[in-house]
Amino acid sequence: MPCISVASGKGGVGKSIICANLGVALSELGYSVALVDADIEGATLGLLLGYNLEDDATLHDYLSGNATEEEVLKSVSPMLNVVFGSVQLTALMKELNLERLERLTSWLKERHDLVLIDTPPGFEEDTFAAIKASDAVIIILNPDILSVTGALKVRIVAKREGKRILGVVVNKAGHEYDIPTEELEAFLEEEVLAVIKDDPLVRNSLLEGIPLVSSYPDSPASRGIKELAKRVMEKLTQDKSQVSGA
Amino acid sequence: MATIMVVDDEEDILSLIQKILTKEGHTVITARDGKEALEKLKHVKPDLILLDIMMPGMSGYQVCKIIKQSDETSSITVAMLTVKADDEDKIRALEDSRADWYFTKPIDTERFAKSVEWLLKNPPRRG
Fold first, then answer.
1. B126 lies in a domain?
2. Is residue B106 reached through a cis peptide bond, with omega within 30 degrees of 0 on the bond before it?
3. Taking the C-alpha atoms of B89, A132, A130 and A154 in order, what is their torsion angle to the nearest 10 degrees?
4. pLDDT digits (tens, 9 = 90+) for B15-58
5. CATH number of residue B17's parent domain
6. How many CB pairs under 8 A join A and B?
7. What is the pTM (predicted TM-score) of this model?
8. Whether A29 contacts A187, CB under 8 Å
9. Residue B90 is assigned to a structural domain of this protein
């Protein structure tokens, strides 16, 4: 199964929250999932999943050649493993070899049904490395103009790297000024995989350090993320059957 | 009903868009190039401008930038209507020229009428 980069051109659209909760939702559907926090300068998966990192080895240790794949992979639940990123400033000062990310995702793919990379926002080397290390990209956006142009920029990078766009996810939706889903699909020429409501319970889950889909499974945003998980697997299964039928 | 300015150097496009919009009850003002559009904007303030990109003289990018930089016209919703469909063109229009939306030709007439209603009612926010 592939490695998917969860990306957004613009920061603050809720990409990491979607990535973490998508990982949990997919694991609850019975798939073995590995999450990689490749947001080098803004790692948040530990916080979002309520995992206390302490002195655990992180992606930063792996990229600087100071830890193995086994050492950085942490089990969060029976079907969910995570490679966390360090939140320590000193970790950022280490010399990181971003090319090692591809080796890590290859290793993870052999051991999981699906690998999701929480990709840094913006367009620096770390973003390019994360997209390069993946097979496909899911773009997270909010229904506003600058978020949409950010999505176009991610698509330009993904195309350049020869990666497939699985679709886009509209997050923080449900306001009268939202760009309608059908307009987004026509403009981006991509499928909207899910529309996730702007949900105040997301904030509660952050404060509690428990993923939204676990703490508030019936909240509007949780329902959207679970729909996304199903749609992602449908698309990947279609791909697989097309490949085997070819 | 709204007043909509359509700026395009192709007569066929102008008459097609005019037909769609007048059928919806809107008043349509046409202009064949950027210069004519900017001149007309000194006297009328439409609710929406549909703007081609590739025109003789000023490009749609330039015209949009001028409209969005002027205090008198910056609040008018501007949507590009063009055959240019590359991601780079869309980014340039929405970010650099500050257009409010972007349609690519050819258009589906039924869908286009709905899109125009959306832009008139709830033009998108920048961020």
1. no
2. yes
3. 10
4. 999 999 999 999 999 999 999 999 999 999 999 999 999 999 99
5. 3.40.50.2300
6. 48
7. 0.95
8. no
9. yes
* Per-domain boundaries in chain A: 3-245
Is A143's Cβ below 8 Å from some Cβ in B?
yes
> Closest approach of chain A CAs to the CA of B125, in angstroms?
5
Residue A245, Cβ density class (10 Å: 0-12 exposed, 13-18 middle, ≥19 buried)? exposed
DSSP-assigned letter for residue A120: P
CB B110 within 8 Å of CB B19: no
ipTM of the complex model = 0.95
- Most A CBs within 10 A among B81, B103, B125, B126, hence the mutation to make, goes to B125
* pLDDT tens per residue, range A197-243: 999 999 999 999 999 999 999 999 999 999 999 999 999 998 777 76
* Alpha carbon distance A116, A5 (integer Å): 6
| Closest alpha carbon to A83 in A99, A64, A65, A68 | A68
Q: Which residues of A140-174 are buried (b: 16+ CB within 10 A; e: fewer)?
A: bbbbbbbbbbbbbbbbbbbeeeebebbbbbbbbbe
Which amino acid, residue A159? K
| A3-245 CATH choice from 3.30.450.40, 3.40.50.300, 3.90.1170.50, 3.40.50.720 | 3.40.50.300
Nearest CA in chain A to B104: A187
Phi and psi dihedrals of A197, rounded to 5?
A: -70, 145
Cβ-Cβ contacts under 8 Å, A183 against chain B: 101, 115, 118
